[in-house]
Amino acid sequence: MSGRNVVVIGTQWGDEGKGKIVDLLTERAAAVVRFQGGHNAGHTLVIDGEKTVLHLIPSGILRAGVQCLIGNGVVLAPGPLLEEIRELEAKGVPVRDRLRISPACPLILPYHVAMDVAREKSLGEQKIGTTGRGIGPAYEDKAARRGVRLGDLFYWQQFSSKLAEVMEYYNFLLANYYETKPVDFQETLDATREVADELLPMVADIGPMLHDLRDAGENILFEGAQGTLLDIDLGTYPFVTSSNT
What we know:
With 245 residues, this protein is of the alpha/beta class.
């Protein structure tokens, strides 16, 4: 018997209550997939009377035995992800053996956040209203082919060189155009090194995993973030997010 691929998306500007629907549907899903956005999402779940808010980890993590996958359309903030993992583990939720992350996920690093904040400040009353978490700049890097990705952490020397190059670009803009403090390269490198050892064991090629689940007749739930009217192409541009929602 063939399983179903179910996609949950919002039809407005987010906050439509997607989390409640996802929570209900995860009871019948073998896997839940986040496919876009970043930690600007916030899905609130209440299971057995306990409230949990998830930003990056798929909502299926609260259901025993459900595989949770983060696809390459997601921009990944290492620090917030690990914080979310630890909060769940403190509640007794096993995460690391069930969470798998695409190596092609672009990383959100401190210079993305600095750029996001500097831009919003420079726009004054005309600001977009971003969350200031570096989502937009990380997607820009992806499109410009200068982004650093999770899989780059497997090759530390190459990652270090790539990081130095992209940070030179960002720090030039921060200092000379936005007239704000540049981001320290060594601090960024060291902080990334600290989280790399925890993240890399969870890296996996998501595509074949989805194919295997599909071939096995399993139900797969794709969990959208934000909403249709925040879509970069179809939304109320320019007051939109930076991904296809």
